[in-house]
Design the sequence.
């Protein structure tokens, strides 16, 4: 099971002394993951809001990560193709691939937050067609087969790996599977039963299209926090998860300007019907003891995922806590995974 870092940069006063310092802290976190052998860092794209808005163009911040690291691969998680000129995206990410020596993983999605479409003057109803057309154009531009469509620079890699984010609609999962592309999922907005069903759509489409099972790539994103007891882990992570999930709720319900970012425990009802906080953490996160986390990783491996991308800094989680989570995972979870693999 590969382990990667997921970075969704949410900055506001109080999260770090300044935005510039926040970027420095993210670079420090990614550099630690690089030094300790994590496979990839994934970086989101969002606009016009505290929720991820500190990364409106992931190619720029990923380039900063590239210059501070040596081997970790650099993934857009994701580039929102529906919102931009696809040739601009092709140029930006090709430059990143060149400057990193060919470490780009090109993660793509169509977007889902209404205020981003409104702000950029794009009709959300057109997102699927815009996404598919943009992807086809970027692939043509990078391939060099069309002399009338040449972008400079071209990527360092002959064909950067492509991953597709899918959350709800069956057509998104089947589109990625039919084309043999990598799949990116996020656990906290869905139950395990729902994630199993949706991952099944992808696996079925992948197999039906005749792709090699050994080449299939699928990752799940999860919150990470490690403590000696489950009670302490949940207590320490609860407000951070609550704020992150509440931001998602505010944006999905049209309350973009509501600054009550932390909200209250009702958000757990929003993401986990029944509102059972412990059950929500057990089913939708890697918040717990090292042994519990190893057990949950085994579940994802059995389901057919080959990579987990871990959010170590989210909501009110501090920079120091994020670094400590990476170190704790390396020291306390990885050995358990190695022992289980050997057994």
Sequence:
């Amino acid at each position: 099971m590969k382990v990667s870092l997921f970075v969704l940069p949410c900055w506001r006063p109080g999260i770090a002394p300044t935005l510039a310092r926040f970027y420095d802290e993210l670079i420090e976190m990614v550099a630690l993951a690089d030094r300790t052998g994590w496979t990839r860092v994934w970086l989101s794209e969002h606009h016009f809001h505290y929720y991820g808005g500190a990364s409106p163009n992931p190619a720029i911040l990923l380039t900063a990560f590239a210059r501070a690291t040596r081997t970790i691969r650099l993934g857009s998680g994701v580039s929102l193709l529906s919102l931009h000129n696809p040739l601009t995206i092709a140029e930006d990410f090709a430059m990143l691939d060149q400057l990193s020596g060919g470490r780009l993983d090109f993660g793509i999605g169509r977007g889902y937050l209404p205020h981003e479409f409104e702000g950029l003057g794009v009709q959300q109803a057109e997102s699927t067609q815009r996404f598919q057309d943009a992807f086809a154009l970027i692939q043509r531009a990078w391939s060099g087969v069309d002399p009338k469509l040449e972008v400079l620079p071209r990527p360092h890699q002959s064909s950067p790996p492509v991953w597709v984010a899918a959350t709800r609609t069956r057509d998104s999962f089947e589109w990625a599977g039919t084309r043999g592309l990598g799949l990116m999922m996020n656990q906290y907005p869905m139950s395990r039963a729902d994630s199993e069903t949706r991952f099944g759509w992808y696996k079925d489409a992948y197999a039906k299209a005749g792709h090699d099972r050994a080449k299939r790539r699928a990752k799940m994103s999860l919150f990470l926090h490690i403590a000696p007891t489950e009670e302490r882990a949940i207590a320490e992570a609860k407000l951070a998860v609550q704020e992150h999930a509440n931001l998602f709720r505010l944006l999905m319900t049209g309350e973009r300007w509501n600054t009550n970012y932390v909200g209250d425990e009702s958000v757990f009802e929003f993401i986990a019907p029944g509102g059972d906080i412990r059950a929500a953490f057990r089913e939708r996160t890697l918040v717990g003891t090292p042994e519990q986390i190893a057990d949950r990783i085994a579940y994802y491996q059995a389901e057919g995922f080959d990579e987990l991308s871990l959010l170590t800094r989210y909501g009110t989680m501090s920079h120091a806590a994020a670094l400590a989570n990476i170190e704790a995972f390396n020291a306390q979870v990885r050995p358990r995974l190695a022992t289980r693999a050997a057994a």
